[in-house]
Design goal:
With 299 residues, the chain is an alpha/beta fold. The protein has eleven helices and twelve strands.
Length: 299
């Protein structure tokens, strides 16, 4: 099917609204002769005369009067489609956003983000889902925002940096080894607890210890940061956790932070989203809100 020339739509709208070739030509800033030729093309396309002589002027045919509101609406819809999205009236948005992250996100940013939503965007709902075996297709379909340490991302996924964190050791406050700084030898000798959603017991910590001719004993690997904290409360293990998370949790639980006596790389925390929502005003508001909150949370 051959589509009609959509450039005719603004001319048709102007002709039907003004009821005049000269009026339409002035509005669209073309010559009267050019608009007269356009009217001829429109007559051929629509199969109707549209404007016919009436005394000293022109009048709309019944078909033209029928078309007028439809043409105006169609032109407005086409222009709206081709314009960049308007800034979101965030207070009136009704949306659910699915955010994937670990429980560190809920501790560091969850309360502040939900409070901001309640104040500014009460129609938005967050559904936070746990990390798993991430696939790029998740962001293309069911996940709106991914927060965490990102793998290499495909070209159709955008990301932005949130913060860097360093790992620390967390122990119960009355543990016998919690009263003085850890040496490398004591650190390696103590039982450890690690966090891995995939159940991995070994990490860069083991690589650094091996470089020094040392090894450690990992008694357990758990999937969440909070479960590691509660296990550390009830035993003499060292739980290795992100520093900001450890700082927050130690304010509420009788846990103490110990520096790890190894040179460990910082972990970059980012948020990622698919191009399908990159220009969406409400999604942009959510991203900007999270950057603002995370920047304050890790100061």
């Amino acid at each position: 099917m051959q589509l009609p020339d959509m450039n005719l739509l603004p001319a048709l709208d102007a002709l039907l609204r003004t009821g005049s070739v000269s009026g339409a030509s002035a509005e669209l800033m073309v010559s009267a002769s050019a608009m007269s030729r356009t009217l001829g093309r429109l007559r051929r396309v629509t199969g109707d005369q549209l404007l016919v002589p009436s005394g000293r002027g022109l009048t709309l045919t019944p078909r033209a009067r029928e078309l007028q509101p439809r043409v105006t609406a169609a032109l407005a819809e086409a222009l709206a489609t081709l314009r960049p999205p308007e800034p979101a009236d965030i207070a009136s948005v009704r949306r659910e956003f699915v955010v994937r992250s670990n429980d560190g996100f809920t501790l560091l940013a969850g309360s502040a983000l939900t409070a901001k939503i309640a104040r500014e965007a009460p129609g938005i709902r967050l559904r936070v889902v746990p990390e798993g075996d991430e696939e790029p297709a998740d962001l293309r379909e069911r996940i709106d925002l991914d927060v965490g340490a990102m793998p290499e991302l495909p070209p159709d996924v955008r990301s932005t940096f949130l913060h860097e964190h360093h790992y620390v050791a967390l122990a119960r406050r009355d543990a016998p080894y919690a009263r003085e700084p850890l040496t490398v030898q004591r650190f390696a000798a103590l039982p450890h607890l690690t966090v891995s959603r995939r159940g991995r017991a070994f990490s860069v910590v083991d690589d650094r210890l091996a470089e020094l001719g040392l090894s450690r004993t990992v008694l357990a690997t758990v999937p969440t940061l909070s479960s590691a904290c509660f296990m550390a409360l009830e035993s003499d293990v060292l739980a290795l956790l992100p520093g900001e998370f450890a700082a927050q949790i130690s304010r509420h639980l009788p846990l103490t932070i110990l520096e790890i006596p190894l040179k460990l790389p910082a972990v970059r925390m980012e948020m990622a989203w698919h191009l399908r929502v990159d220009a969406d005003p409400a999604h942009r508001w959510l991203r900007e809100s999270l950057v603002e909150i995370m920047t304050g949370a890790v100061r």
